[in-house]
Amino acid sequence: MEHEVFVPVPAEALRATLTDPARVVRCVPGLQRDADAEAGPLTGRLKVRVGGNTITYRGALRVVERDGAITYEGEGTEARGKGSAELSLTVVLTPVAEGTSLSFTGALTAVGRLADATDEARSTAGVRLLDKFVEAVAALAEEPEALEEATDDDGVDDGVEEPARTAAFDVPVPPPSLDPLLDEDFADSPIEFPAPQPAAEAAHARRTMIGRSAEEVDHAPPRGRYAPVPAPEATSAGATLRWIAPAAALALASAVVVGRALRRRR
């Protein structure tokens, strides 16, 4: 397959990124690096979506520089299945106006699920994979570290302008012009606090502002159906005498009348 992409990034910055395995592994979409510390930086799993299927390969990739061109050679086996694939992809960088032209030439040998896919599906998957790869490489090459590596050892820049760096703490910060207390001396001006109000005046002020104080609300008895039933009043000796005296008088008068009636009959 053949593919060509234009990138608005200098060629030296792109070359420094494309030849560094630690950076390449960050740019390959769908690549999951192997957790083994002894394994190479381009060793792990690669997920490739071809047509409506997703194929996962376990393998490794190598970076080789030949005659100014960069070649990626890799092989892998299917994580689920007996298929395998071998890839050889060569990248040629050509400086052009305002950027670099990247030309890709690749050859693929596959057995298994990838071989069963159509030529159109494989071509579409390859172009999509390369476009995402170039986009990630361009973004990584524009970082400050990559731009610094594009400078030669003699200190002459290769046309890559380093972004201007300003020291934020070296610039004096003017005072705010809208501060009304800017010219006042707080050390010589005492701070006056309002005199505390008496408790009675404060309570009256609260009742005046909010109607009833919190203490009055808390201690007010409930009204309506939830009002408590008043307890029966305790009877005193005076109240007992007030209803016993008329009854005794009535009983005494009745006894006198009955006694007189009995005498008359005798």
Automatic annotation (TrEMBL):
The chain crosses the membrane at residues 243-262. It comes from the Bacteria. Keywords: Membrane, Transmembrane, Transmembrane helix. Pfam families: Polyketide_cyc2. InterPro entries: CO_DH_gsu, Polyketide_cyclase/dehydratase, START-like_dom_sf. This is SRPBCC family protein.
